[in-house]
C-alpha cells in the first residue's frame, strides 16, 4: 500500500534541490517548462513593453513642453525688450553723469569704448565656447 502512495516521478528529499537546479533556471516556478526560446520570447516581450512605455512617456513630456513653449518664448522676448531699454537708460545715465566731469565728447568716448570692450569680450568668449563645443561634437582637438 505504501508503494502506491509513493510517487516515482518526484525525486527524493536528498536530491530534490539538484533536480530543480538542473531542469529549471532560477526564478521559474516549479512545474513550468522554461525553455530558452520561451525565456527569450518573454524577454523580448518585456523589452517591447518597456520601449512602448518609454516612447509614450517621452511623447507626453514633449506634448507638455510644446504646449507651454509659445508662452515661454513670448516672456523671454518681453524680458529681452525690457533689458534693452534698461541698458539704454544706463548708457544715457552714464553720459549725463560723466558729461560735467569730462565733457560731453569725453563722456561719449568713454562710454563707447567701454561698450566696445565689453562687446568684444562677450563675442570672444562666445566664439571660444562655440569652437570648443564643435570640437567636442566632431571629435577633433582644436
N-to-C order of helices and strands = HHHH
- Poorly predicted sequence stretches spanning 5 or more consecutive residues: 16-21
Q: What integer is the average pLDDT?
A: 83
Tally of strands: 0
Annotation field: number of helices? 4
Q: What is the overall silhouette?
A: elongated
The Cα radius of gyration reads 37 Å
What is the rounded distance between the termini?
A: 89 Å
Assess the beta-strand content as a share of residues.
Answer: under 5%
Helix content: over 70%
Please identify the structural class as seen in this structure: mainly alpha
**Largest beta-sheet details:** none
Region (Disordered): 1-32
Organism: Novosphingobium nitrogenifigens DSM 19370
Transmembrane segments: 69-99, 105-127
Keywords: Membrane, Transmembrane, Transmembrane helix
Structural commentary:
By secondary structure, the chain is mostly helical. It has a domain at 32-82. The protein is 80% helix and 0% strand. It is built from 4 helices and no strands. It has helices at 2-5, 16-23, 36-102, 104-138. Residues 16-21 have low confidence and may be disordered. Keywords: Membrane, Transmembrane, Transmembrane helix. Residues 1-32 are annotated as: Disordered. The chain crosses the membrane at residues 69-99, 105-127. It comes from Novosphingobium nitrogenifigens DSM 19370.
Amino acid at each position: 500500500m505504501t508503494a502506491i502512495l509513493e510517487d516515482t516521478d518526484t525525486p527524493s528529499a536528498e536530491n530534490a534541490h539538484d533536480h530543480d537546479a538542473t531542469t529549471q533556471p532560477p526564478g521559474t516556478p516549479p512545474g513550468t517548462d522554461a525553455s530558452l526560446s520561451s525565456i527569450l520570447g518573454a524577454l523580448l516581450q518585456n523589452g517591447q513593453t518597456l520601449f512602448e512605455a518609454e516612447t509614450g512617456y517621452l511623447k507626453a513630456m514633449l506634448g507638455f513642453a510644446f504646449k507651454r513653449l509659445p508662452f515661454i518664448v513670448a516672456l523671454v522676448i518681453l524680458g529681452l525688450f525690457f533689458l534693452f531699454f534698461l541698458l539704454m537708460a544706463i548708457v544715457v545715465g552714464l553720459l549725463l553723469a560723466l558729461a560735467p566731469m569730462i565733457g560731453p565728447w569725453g563722456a561719449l568716448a568713454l562710454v563707447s569704448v567701454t561698450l566696445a570692450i565689453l562687446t568684444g569680450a562677450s563675442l570672444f568668449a562666445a566664439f571660444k565656447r562655440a569652437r570648443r563645443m564643435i570640437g567636442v561634437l566632431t571629435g577633433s582637438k582644436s
